Amino acid sequence: MRKILFAAMALLVSVSANAQFQRTPTPNDKLVSVETAKDGSVTFRIYAPNAKQVGLSGDIGARGLTFTKSDDGVWSATLPNVTPGAFRYTFVVDGITVFDPKYSRLGEIRPVVEILPQDQDAFWAMKDVPHGAVAQVYYKSSTMGTTRRMHVWTPAGYNASVDKLPVLYLIHGGGDNDASWPGVGRAGQILDNLLAEGKMVPMVVVMPDGSISTDKFPDELTKDIIPFVEKNYRVKTDSANRALAGLSMGGLETLDSFMAHPDMFGYINVMSSGWFTNNKEMYEKGEARLKEIAATLNKTAKLLIFTQGGEEDIAYANGKAMLEVFKKCGIKFEYSEMPGGHTWHVWRHDLHNLAPRLFK
Prior knowledge:
CATH architecture of the largest domain: 3-Layer(aba) Sandwich
Number of helices: 7
Number of domains: 2
CATH topology of the largest domain: Rossmann fold
Shape: globular
């Protein structure tokens, strides 16, 4: 009886397995969801046979892109003349945001499409060079009363070395998190390539989660993040070997942090950010504080840079107005801008330009 039962169970398992492998094929099986062409165009596809409408969202500039449906249920649209870069995207199917089901790393991050220039030689591209490690690190936050996460890049060869390295604290913008710089920001690739080319000194780059209220971030940084890093990594702990940079919301957190602690950071980059022009209190308090710290900041900060994405940057007016206050208070700084707006295209360039100037 037991032999019969086992045989029946084996038959059932076999039939079940065969049934799974003998399912009816669909166009989705061999679908290429994102295809880039040499002319700079990108074609997006998704299998959605019962959908009534499909669109695309994200920072690739596809608003108004029209998808058409083929007889096999595949929707497709081609976006022409895409500037080389890395862009996040999601499909919008009948009003519902849908991550690309064909994206190979869907379980890790929001899908990113990478558009390489014709010569493949982008400073942010994955190249055949020694690669550092990007780790997810969890730490106890006394400021927030919880366990929080950050990403930390260490250069190639770090684990085999005994040297202490300088540190860059690099903050994302609003709506993003600590995975954004190593993800769409391509921080790891940028740093790997610069180091391999001998254009920057080895350093540790800490990418914290700045998605807390900006007024709490200076305490989070100085009481929790920096002490954790200095306890658990081989890093130098003086201001000359500590840098701070952040974009947009992270730029405000950068401002709040170095203004609260003007003697802590030797290198600072505020990207696409500034005090809100309609916030009188922000300007009054900011000016008063800058007057208090001007002498200390000018002495400690070897490099204070403000960068923006041109007049199309949504933070442009805020940044320009705020810098008038810095001038008034006698703060020494550099300013530069490039076309590109409030986008990762600009911020990747900012990191690429900043890293070679640090700790020299």
